[in-house]
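Researcher: Can you fold this with norvaline in place?
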Amino acid sequence: MMHGKDLVSMADLEPEQIREILRRAVAFKRGETAPVLAGKSAALILEKPSLRTRVSFELAIRQLGGFTVSLDQAEVGLGTREPVADVARVLSRYVDLIAARTHAHGTLVELARHATVPVLNLLSDREHPCQALADVLTVQEKLGKLEGAIVAYVGDGNNVAASLALACAALGVSFRIASPPSHQLSLGVASATQERAQRSGAAFQQMKDPQQAVRDAHVVYTDVWVSMGQEGEKAQRLKTFQGYQVTAALLEKARPGVLFMHPLPAHPGEEIEPGLLDLPASAVFDQAENRLHVQKAVLTYLLSPASREG
Ligand code: CP
Ligand code: NVA
């Protein structure tokens, strides 16, 4: 079962808990609606920019009857104006949930440790669990099932890759990642993914060669080479990732009917060839839409502890 009250890492969720969130998301997407979060409030703290996460989070809670208090970093000064622990303890006296997008993953861990209400990771430098949940929902919709699918991730072993690897391995989806050796998944994420894959019967492989990774894959996934907060490394990163661009020609090496996925925002000319988002293979706007349905599922899951016992 869920290790605690929070969703900070994808590893906080056991496979059955992920499946329950996906079931709820499917129901919300079909139009199920009720004011199940009436009177519930969430603090939303964003230390970095956002389009999809901010809009989907605010709409999700509002459409279910709750509301958000939005705070930006300049205002709250997480760890600068006030210690993170104190922010967590104060907000816990006001709101039912704290959702945050932070530079350092450690800030979320600290918030979770000191808050008495659930803390939700809306992206950190290490993970992006809400994105991964929307991604596996998208794969499930497009392929009809998850178990047995092969996802090939090409590029940076970053926050998005980490949460996706953990989600796929939990659900019996084989995950391959092709990245430069200096930008593989962290050792901790790789070993947790390996362990989950062993339990679910899926495969997990890290490699260098994108062409090898995409062979027979049902899904080819990539993300930016320069994540938010890494702007100072841009020139070096653009060099390091040469040869890792996802192109229409690379998609042709995958399974016929392959899906192309990307969390957005995308940088055509860097990690993707211009025009890729518009190919029939592209599922990127379905992924973006699914952020809303998954956000509702995650919020109800975290805010209704009784309903997640079973
Ligand atoms: N995919 C994603 O998280 O987008 P935003 O950064 O715009 O929220
Ligand atoms: N890896 C990207 C994802 C953005 C949604 C970043 O952290 O900027």
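Model: Folded with norvaline in place. The first strand starts at residue 41 and ends at 46.
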